[in-house]
Design brief:
Blueprint (H helix, E strand, L loop, with lengths): L2 H20 L4 H10 L4 H22 L8 H24 L2 H5 L2 H25 L9 H15 L4 H12 L4 H26 L4 H22 L4 H23 L1
Length: about 250
């Protein structure tokens, strides 16, 4: 690995850590860089997942104030995130990567639609059913599905998570974003342990992404906490649609 390649991976890690703390989809910073440098897709995905775990922890810590009062909810949903991440890891190591990558743009697009309609959808749901503190019986399944997605490919799992949480919980968008960061860390950490045990990450790449993502996660969390709800939703949709277009173009 040359110096310029190392700097490119480090810079991508910083960008990924920052955008993961604010929105999600940081993998779209790092994964294309690794592919451009010649790393095979599966190896790139594995190394990326392990490297981003420390940065997602930084982002979660940055939102610790908004996590207050959500301990019970977080613990219950974290179990589903952990199970989903393991399932996603098994899929990555045993299935053709192209199978899942083909549906990724569709999943991201649907998640962005949910972000846009979430305030009105939440209002409609509140009129037709009592508010549910724990999000209802489908929320754990949605979190599990997001964990499967995050354990397999990781790109935009934060967008999917925040859309699932936002349409299920009666909470402020910043508290939802804090919960999203904590659950994303659970997925990334579980996937990192899984891949370290059953696969072969490229450790120099892991170290560079990890260092960059810690820096980016810290500053990204500070920025995200200052955004107004409308601005945060707008940024989520913008990043999500960019991610979807990028993935479609890469498959052409």
């Amino acid at each position: 690995m040359s110096l310029w390649e190392a700097l490119a991976i480090l810079a991508a890690g910083i960008g990924a850590g920052g955008i993961n703390a604010v929105v999600g989809s940081g993998t779209l910073f790092t994964f294309p860089v690794l592919l451009a440098l010649g790393y095979p897709p599966v190896i790139a995905s594995i190394s990326n997942s392990v490297g981003l775990a420390p940065g997602s922890l930084t982002g979660a810590i940055g939102y610790r104030q908004e996590l207050r009062g959500q301990k019970g909810r977080l613990l219950r949903l974290a179990v589903m995130s952990c199970a989903g991440a393991i399932s996603g890891g098994v899929l990555l190591l045993n299935l053709d990567p192209e199978v899942f990558e083909r549906v990724v743009p569709v999943l991201i697009g649907l998640a962005c639609v949910l972000i846009i309609v979430q305030p009105r959808l939440t209002g409609w749901l509140r009129k037709h059913r009592p508010a549910r503190r724990h999000g209802g019986p489908l929320l754990p399944l949605g979190v599990y599905g997001a964990g499967v997605y995050g354990g397999y490919f990781a790109a935009a799992q934060g967008i999917i998570l925040i859309s699932v949480l936002g349409t299920s919980l009666d909470e402020d968008v910043q508290r939802i974003n804090a919960l999203k960061n904590a659950l994303a860390f659970t997925v990334n950490a579980t996937a990192a342990v899984f891949y370290t045990t059953f696969a072969a990450p490229v450790w120099p790449v892991v170290g560079l992404i990890a260092g960059g993502s810690v820096i980016g996660g810290y500053f990204g969390a500070r920025l995200g906490r200052k955004l107004k709800p409308f601005a945060l939703r707008g940024l989520i949709v913008a990043v999500g649609m960019t991610a979807a277009v990028q993935l479609v173009v890469e498959q052409l």
